[in-house]
Amino acid sequence: RKEVEQDPGPFNVPEGATVAFNCTYSNSASQSFFWYRQDCRKEPKLLMSVYSSGNEDGRFTAQLNRASQYISLLIRDSKLSDSATYLCVVNRDDKIIFGKGTRLHILP
Amino acid sequence: DAEITQSPRHKITETGRQVTLACHQTWNHNNMFWYRQDLGHGLRLIHYSYGVHDTNKGEVSDGYSVSRSNTEDLPLTLESAASSQTSVYFCASSGVLGYEQYFGPGTRLTVT
User: Fold this and answer.
1) Is the pLDDT of residue B71 over 90?
2) A66 contact partners, CB below 8 Å, separation of at least 6
3) CB B32 within 8 Å of CB B46
């Protein structure tokens, strides 16, 4: 089993809709969690950190469920510019482990 | 503004040749990383360094080497390029281990 697993998608979602992805991690010792965004043929960039209490940044909400070992990303009122690949990232013992990413296509 | 750059951005080389990819960061970060990204595999760690003269192997280090002679640079060398090393290579740096990594724009390498 991979240490970080994501549904690869693609998720095809109409503009304005709400979309959510989950990511599961296998090692309960994982300490911190992040979502990165990667546009086509570009480098990954940090979207947001994920805190135990959950956190929100504009239209984006990230949640952590330690008991079930998953993190989630919710995007509300999706925009065409949200089309990208979203990478789930886990820190364990100062090692950063990347998921393979979930592709999101926002449809006009 | 601080940044991380990679060169060249695109490279075509022949099997068996030695190739070096450059990575330069002006964040003054101690931690630097090299990844390759291929369809179906996501980002895979090749080598990393926690400071000058420190280098460590990642999960896919065979056929690659790095050296760290100063804080700013971590060049990646392919000793004898193979077609299986055709990929997109990303360099990254971070100031705090386990936290945000800043990525360079990537180098697209084709080995023919």
Assistant:
1) yes
2) A28, A52
3) no
Tell me if B98 and A34 make a contact (CB, 8 A cut-off). no
**Residue of B101, B107, B108 to mutate, interface with A, max A Cβ within 10 Å:** B101
* Residue A51 pLDDT > 90: no
Contacts of A87 in chain B (CB under 8 A): 42-43
Cβ–Cβ below 8 Å for A44 and B43? yes
Model confidence band, residue B98 (pLDDT cutoffs 50, 70, 90): confident
Q: Give the whole-angstrom CA distance, residue B60 versus residue B74.
A: 17
| Partner residue opposite B42 with nearest CB, options A32, A41, A100 | A100
The DSSP element (H or E) to which B49 belongs, if any, is strand B42-51
Query: Residue B79 above 80 pLDDT?
Result: yes
The dihedral sign for the CA sequence A107, A104, A7, A42: positive
Cα separation values, B63 from A64, A66, B38, B60, B66, Å = 38, 38, 16, 9, 11
Phi (first) and psi of residue B63, to 5 degrees: 90, 0
Contact A69, A88 (CB under 8 A): no
Structure confidence at residue A44 (pLDDT): 97
| pLDDT tens column, B9-44 | 999 999 999 999 999 999 999 999 999 999 888 899
Query: How far is the C-alpha of A54 from the C-alpha of A52, rounded, in Å?
Result: 5
